[in-house]
Specification:
This protein is of the alpha/beta class. It is built from 5 helices and 6 strands; from the N terminus they run βαβαββαααββ.
Length: about 140
């Protein structure tokens, strides 16, 4: 018998739009679910070398939780390659002032380290409040 595996192409798999309300959800556990949806690993047509993932809209990024003392102890580090250009911010400060950046970095580090990762990350839409501007796409609640 001659059985062949069918590999999906970029144009063959339509992207599903999902909506996630991050209120009182744990950052790391939610990030893994979102990364799997962005890669398309939740679909039977998953192909690692094509963009077959979904689009995820996350609202209430500022109300996400962290377990233990991570918010006070972990540090968010940036560096601009100038002397004295290193800056450290606690996760607690980041959750209060820049939750989208903290959420984006958590998801980005769970994506594959290749050229597709930046394209997958463009399918992540983050919003601080409970309203978003993607109502026309009719995002469905993401099963968690």
């Amino acid at each position: 018998m001659n059985r062949q595996t069918t590999l999906a192409k970029n144009n063959n798999v339509p992207a599903q739009w999902y909506h996630v309300d991050a209120t009182d959800l744990i950052l790391g556990r939610l990030s893994t679910r979102i990364a799997m949806a962005l890669m398309g690993k939740n679909k039977p047509t998953y192909t690692p070398h094509h963009l077959v993932g979904d689009v995820v809209v996350v609202t209430n990024c500022d109300k996400v939780k962290m377990t233990g003392e991570k918010a006070a102890q972990k540090m968010f580090q940036t560096y601009v390659f100038y002397p004295g250009g290193q800056k450290n911010f606690s996760y607690q400060w980041m959750l209060k002032n820049r939750p989208e950046l903290l959420f984006e970095r958590a998801v980005r580090r769970m994506l594959p380290k290749n050229k597709l990762a930046s394209k997958m990350l463009k399918n992540l839409k983050l919003f601080r409040g409970h309203e978003h501007n993607h109502q026309a796409q009719n995002p469905q609640p993401m099963p968690l």
